[in-house]
Amino acid sequence: MRAMVWDGTGALKERDLPDPEPGPGEVRLVVRACGICRTDLHLIDGDLPPGGLPRVPGHEIVGVIDRLGPGVVDLSLGQRVGVGWLAHSCRRCPYCLAGHENLCDRPAFTGYTRDGGFATLAVAEARYVYPLDGIDLADTVVAPLLCAGLIGWRSLVMAGPHRKLGLYGFGAAGHIILQAARWQGAEVFVFTRPGDLAAQEFALTLGAAWAGSSEEPPPEPLDAAILYAPVGALVPAALAAVRKGGRVVCAGIHMSDIPAFPYTLLWGERQLVSVANLTRADALDFLRVVPLAGIRPEVTSYPLSQANRAIQDLRAGQVRGAAVLVP
Ligand SMILES: [Zn+2]
Ligand SMILES: [Zn+2]
């Protein structure tokens, strides 16, 4: 197979690798599209503990099953499916036994501790493969739903009941979750990098009630806020933006250090929580919501071999919505 490989230094390298074969309980996909997530950038930047090298990144995979490993009965050849970040859970640790597989002590992650979808073929554990039968969108448009959408959805649920919701960072996850929150009836306030008028304009066209700089306070107090930007300095800003009893959810896997802040920002029963990974139930819930809410990610597609250019554009904030690789 053809793949873009992370070998621990520099840019991704284009390589021919042996075709992977599915083991027991696994399936193989012909990859049709794979989104690029902020986590892929954290991997390349060394922000995460090493997950094994060389590695094929990519955990927003849309593909068609072309091989079934032994014991797989509930998926079929030719079926269009998606694969996301959580690739495996142990089923035995206290978290798994309590239904919190997202917190598993011995998990595996697609494109991080296992090879992912920046390739023409990918192998995945069947338990963590999601049928996409109900979603009538192009493969490239579906791809960002598999992480930005799924973990975004978990963070939206974690935000608790709200009428006024703040979103800090308006990339792949932000623009998908704005659509989900609007469908739920929330008013959404979007905070972007200072001066990013294009992102603010984009948020308003998707129905944001207000869009402005992350250095500005919102025009009225918020019930909850979700941080998608990996910027620790936004935590005190978001706490200052929510009302008493409000909640701030940190949705990224990595964030720069949070600066010291006065206790008055947390006082008043404000809550600060993080979201880690996702469960299969999150995935199935969100994939049911997508057609009901009419969620439609905006994507910029790049050929697989242009992965490094796509990553550069993403870093530079030049991608509107989500970046997706097409083999
Ligand atoms: Zn991701
Ligand atoms: Zn476990």
Note down, in words, how this protein is organized.
Residues 1-23 are annotated as: Disordered. Keywords: Metal-binding, Oxidoreductase, Zinc. Its cofactor is Zn(2+). Helix 4 (148-158) crosses helix 5 and helix 4 crosses helix 8. This protein has helices at 38-44, 94-97, 139-142, 148-158, 172-183, 197-205, 234-241, 280-293, 307-315, and strands at 2-5, 13-16, 26-36, 61-68, 80-83, 86-88, 108-109, 121-125, 129-131, 164-168, 187-192, 210-213, 222-227, 242-250, 271-274, 299-303, 322-326. The longest helix is centred in the last third of the chain and has 14 residues, at 280-293. Strands 3, 4, 5, 8, 9, 16 and 17 form a seven-stranded mixed sheet that branches. The chain contains nine helices and 17 strands. It starts with a strand and ends with a strand. The protein folds into two domains: 2-144 and 296-325, Quinone Oxidoreductase, Chain A, domain 1 (Alpha-Beta Complex), CATH 3.90.180; 149-274, Rossmann fold (3-Layer(aba) Sandwich). One zinc ion binds next to loops.
